[in-house]
Design brief:
The complex is a heterodimer of chains A (279) and B (210). Chain A is mostly helical and 279 residues long. Chain A has 3 domains: 20-69, no CATH class; 72-155, Helix Hairpins; 159-278, Nop domain (Serum Albumin, Chain A, Domain 1), CATH 1.10.246.90. Chain A contains 14 helices and no strands. Chain A has helices at residues 14-23, 32-38, 45-69, 72-104, 110-118, 125-158, 160-166, 168-178, 181-186, 189-194, 198-205, 221-224, 231-251, 257-278. Chain A is flat and about 75 Å long. The model of chain A has no long low-confidence stretch (mean pLDDT 90). With 210 residues, chain B is of the alpha/beta class. Chain B has a single domain (38-207), classed as Rossmann fold (3-Layer(aba) Sandwich). In chain B, a hairpin with a 7-residue loop joins strand 10 and strand 11. The mean pLDDT of chain B is 94. The chains are: A mainly alpha (279), B alpha/beta (210). The A-B interface holds A 2-5, 20-21, 24-33, 49-50, 52-53, 56-57, 59-61, 63-64, 67-68, 157, 160, 252-258, 261-262, 265 and B 82, 88-94, 96-97, 100-101, 104-110, 117-118, 120-125, 134-136, 147-148, 162-163, 165-167. Chain A: One of its GO terms (cellular component) is box C/D methylation guide snoRNP complex. Chain A: InterPro entries: Helix_hairpin_bin_sf (IPR029012), Nop56/Nop58 (IPR045056), Nop_C (IPR042239), Nop_dom (IPR002687), Nop_dom_sf (IPR036070). Chain A: GO terms for molecular function: snoRNA binding.
Chain lengths: 279, 210
């Protein structure tokens, strides 16, 4: 049998009731008003509904504040920290591989090699020093993973539509590159398209390079998965929808599932050009 | 068509419109206690305006999925009994809280309509489920929430074609939604909500017995 939100609660304990409304669960709905009266939680159904109104109001306003408090600046810090951890872990992994190769000959590469060294048993002091470094490297890579998980959890609350289209991590990168969700929402989509390609953009503006077709959005399948000739179009279409999504997220906060379908359709049409060209 | 008790056709400066009695919520026109229920802003309002037989009599226990800022659910709470309002997006819920402030029988919940187990510990079995969720898989949401309906309860759903697939022909979308719903519900009446809401289908249905 399922339990109602009031099960085991002191009728006057506001904080516990709010917690139960937010986090509680039940397999099936039951006649809660009647059960609450029978359990002595409320004198009668009218009193139960009065209490329910109070606690749902309180719980929902707390939940709204929490969800909205997941702000864009926290996300910016997290995504930058994740990039630092990844970069440093990779750098240290190279050092570990070089050192490991000189001692064991069985040189591998990357964080995986560092993880395998971290599990070795020491034979002398050199082994101990190398293993300690390998352990730190693996831990740093783990830290990057847990920051990524944090971003995947919080980005959809900060920017639901942008996260839906771009995925949480790319959404966080774009917000970070722009300096915040509001700043991203105010950028034209042509700028969103080349965020993260600033070096290439300024080389182009100086007059000695072609214009960049895409910045960090290249990491998304929709750009990378499109053949080279059409990548500019795909990036432009993708960036267009992303900036619309960022504006909705900043100014209204509604969810617009339509955006995803519209984007899917645009990209499908662009990618279909490759097949038409083959004929 | 009979309107539920508590809903009337009321005259607002020469224009007759559906109306309920309660505190105004979204800047709608008022006349004394009466507040205009604009069918252009409310899909349930449009269903009543179209003359669909919703079976609503007034005083029902209601689970409202996709309450958004509370435009429609505030009218429902005006004529209904205990009304549970589920909405997933935090920003509109702030306005929903304002609407619920003056309505003791309206219980706002920040929950995901696709996860009924996260609110089944609060919501009791109800006479009516009103569904207006603009997400893909609207038939699935109705199926998941069937457990809240009493045997003789009613599902009043507004299906938005563009939420399922922007590119498909709305009629094709509605056909597939009707087919999927029919597994769990007996469809009593369906009607397009034009001209009030483009590419929306209003559905009145009754749960099939398991």
């Amino acid at each position: 049998m399922s339990n109602g939100w009031f099960a085991g609660l002191d009728p006057d304990d506001d904080a516990a009731a709010v917690e139960q409304i937010e986090a509680g669960r039940a397999e099936t709905p039951e006649d809660w008003p009647q059960q609450a009266v029978e359990a002595g939680f409320a004198d009668d159904e009218a009193a139960y509904y009065d209490r329910l109104h109070e606690v749902t109001m309180a719980a929902t306003s707390t939940a709204v504040a929490e969800r909205e408090g997941a702000d864009d600046q926290q996300l910016v810090h997290a995504v930058r920290a994740m990039a630092d951890c990844e970069r440093t872990a990779n750098e240290l992994a190279e050092r570990v591989a070089e050192w490991g190769g000189s001692r064991h000959g069985d040189s591998g590469s990357g964080v995986e090699y560092a993880r395998s060294l971290a599990d070795r048993t020491d034979e002398d002091e050199g082994d101990t020093a190398l293993r300690a470094l390998a352990e730190q490297t693996a831990e740093l890579a783990d830290e990057a993973d847990s920051l990524r998980a944090y971003i995947e959890r919080t980005a959809p609350a900060v920017a639901p539509n942008l996260s839906m289209l771009a995925g949480p991590v790319l959404a966080a990168r774009l917000i970070s590159l722009a300096g915040g969700l509001e700043a991203l929402a105010k950028k034209p989509s042509g700028t969103v398209q080349v965020l993260g390609a600033e070096d290439a953009l300024f080389a182009h503006l100086k007059g000695n390079a072609p214009s960049p077709k895409h910045g960090v959005i290249f990491t998304h399948e929709y750009v990378r998965g499109t053949r080279r000739e059409d990548r500019g179009s795909a990036a432009r279409a993708f960036a267009g929808k992303l900036s619309i999504a960022a504006r909705i997220d900043h100014y209204s906060g509604d969810r617009r599932p339509d955006l995803q379908a519209e984007l899917d359709e645009r990209i499908e049409r662009i990618q279909a050009r490759a097949e038409e060209g083959d004929e | 068509m009979t309107l539920p008790t508590g809903v009337e056709r009321h005259d607002f400066d020469g224009e007759t419109s559906l109306a309920t009695q309660g505190q105004p919520v979204y800047g709608e026109r008022t006349d004394g206690d009466w507040r205009r229920w604009d069918p252009h802003r409310s899909k349930l309002g449009a269903m009543l305006e179209q003359g669909m037989d919703t079976g609503l009599e007034g005083g029902e226990t209601v689970l409202y999925l996709g309450a958004a800022a509370g435009t429609t659910v505030s009218h429902v709470a005006d004529f209904g009994g205990p009304t549970y309002a589920v909405e997933f997006a935090p920003r509109p819920v702030r306005e929903l809280l304002d609407a619920a402030e003056s309505r003791r029988n309206l219980f706002p919940l920040l929950k995901d309509a696709r996860k009924p187990e996260s609110y089944a510990h609060v919501v009791e079995p109800v006479d009516v489920v009103v569904q207006d969720v603009a997400t893909r898989g609207q038939a699935r949401v109705a199926t998941l929430n069937k457990q809240f309906l009493t045997d003789d309860g009613r599902l009043l759903a507004a299906i938005k074609a563009r939420s399922e697939d922007v590119t498909a022909d709305p009629d094709a979308v509605f056909d597939s939604v009707r087919t999927e719903l029919s597994a769990e519900y007996e469809l009593l009446e369906t009607a397009r909500l034009d001209p009030f809401h483009e590419d929306h289908l209003g559905i009145v249905a009754r749960p099939r017995e398991d």
